[in-house]
Fold this sequence. Notes:
Order of helices and strands: HEEEEEEEEHEEEEEH
Helix content: 10-25%
Largest sheet: 9 strands, antiparallel
Number of domains: 1
Number of helices: 3
Distance between the termini: 10 Å
Radius of gyration: 19 Å
Shape: globular
Mean pLDDT: 44
Number of strands: 13
Amino acid sequence: MSEAFRFRVAVSLCIVLMLTMGSLSQRADSIPDTNSSALDSDYYYIPIGIFDYTISFVSEAGVELLRLGCMISMRYAHPDAMGEETPQHRMTVTMGFHRGHSILGRPLVTEMRVNVCSFYSRWSTSLGETTDLFMNDSMFDLRGEIPSGHKESVTKVTERDAATRHVIMFGGTLHIEAMSIVLSNSEDVSLDMGPLDIVMEKLSEESSPQPAVVSYGGNLSYLCDSNRLVVNLECSTPWIQRVDLVLSLGLLGIACVATVVIVSKWRKR
């Protein structure tokens, strides 16, 4: 590994970390309370939390290339189901599944072409219900092929979905079984993520549920120019505070794209 490559990696990571931590420290105190009247009356905010990650970048040969600790904070603006006929989600990120990838060794059977501001994930709740959700601007949409053993149906569900809505409003556990991020609508660069549990606790009758503990176990893998770089990630953290989701995901996206570009150039050498 050349000195120039190590220098580019160090500079890129320093810039991303400084931007992330600087933005979080500036914005953390300026975010209104969950139930503040200053918020748009058609929205309530679901705090997702601050995640303290330890990430190891491991080559295909099993050699650890880099170990990085970082802190990411998120907040998700969720529309009030009673507020609008066609609610709008305040989240801008490109996510989705497409054929040919696997998560934690399980092949994906759902084929999707993602657009900007789309999100796909499989959710289950403490009520025992499981739903495949696809969000594109304003609605969750179940599409594509159904895995064997599942009820063969194609359904549109909004955030009014009963099980998810119940957990959000009254507490419980949301489980994201699998998630995949496709960068720049490209099939050549993807980010696969493993299971995520969000435990929502009802603090009082007047307050919205707050995530008490977020536990994450699994791995992420970058696919770039047919070369896969595995990223091992473990996280279990208590709820700390709320910050803006779009800002956090944007900075995280910058870090992901920078890493993919650096790794791609390094592998071409």
